[in-house]
Amino acid sequence: MEGTDIHAAELAERVQELEKERSTLWDNVSYQQSQSMRNNLVFTSVPEANGNGNETPETTEAKLRQHLVSAFKLTEEVATSIKFERVHRSPGMPLHGKVRNIVAKFTFFKDRDMVRKRWKELDGTAYRVFQQFPPEVMSKRRQLVVKMKEARRLGKRAYLAYDTLYVDGTPVRT
Fold first, then answer.
1. Residue 95 phi/psi, 5° resolution?
2. Rounded distance, CA 41 to CA 47, Å?
3. How far apart are CA 72 and CA 121, in angstroms?
4. Is 84 a residue whose pLDDT tops 90?
């Protein structure tokens, strides 16, 4: 009987070690995914060329460049000079009354950041732009946004960086 109890305790300890290792590996995979997405921005509410879901990547890229000029107030020359590795609509068929988002992978981080920092040009419009993150990171960020808004309401300086909330320079994680 004692041998069984000892063996069960060893197995329980091993399971704990494996769960900890799995969690670490999952965090690493999530980080790798976010690194592969770090040059991506997601643009919302940009109308599609047609409603049947077969807009070509070239058409999507042209629509995005026009959107950068009209909504982000970039000059035609700047919008044309931006290089993309890939521009596509979110997967799936468009739903009636809904417009699929555009996901753009910028070749140069500098271009991506320049566009992202012009988000205030979108105030008062239906358009939005945001960074793309893996689902696990988005889930953490959603939880932290509530805490960030509360900290700001209390007059503190709060912002999100990846999956960490900083309040007055101190990191707060979920």
1. -95, 150
2. 17
3. 6
4. yes
CA distance 158 to 152: 6
The domain segmentation of the chain, as residue ranges, is 1-37, 40-131, 134-174
**SS3 of 74, please?**
coil
How far lies 14's CA from each of 9, 10, 21, 28, 74, in Å? Answer: 9, 6, 10, 21, 57
* Statement: the pTM of the whole predicted model exceeds 0.85: no
Question: How are beta strands 40-44 and 170-172 bridged, if at all?
Answer: unpaired
Give the residue from 103, 105, 117 showing the smallest Cα distance to 73: 117
List, for residues 119-151, the tens digit of each pLDDT value: 999 999 999 999 999 988 899 999 999 999 999
If you search the block for the tokens 């931006």, which residue do you land on?
Answer: 82
Q: How high is the pLDDT of residue 63?
A: 95
Q: Distance between CA atoms of 45 and 160, rounded to whole angstroms?
A: 24
The CATH number of domain 40-131, selected from 3.30.70.1820, 2.40.128.20, 3.30.420.40, 1.10.10.10? 3.30.70.1820
Taking CA atoms, 47 is separated from 2, 54, 86, 126, 132, in Å, by 70, 13, 18, 11, 20
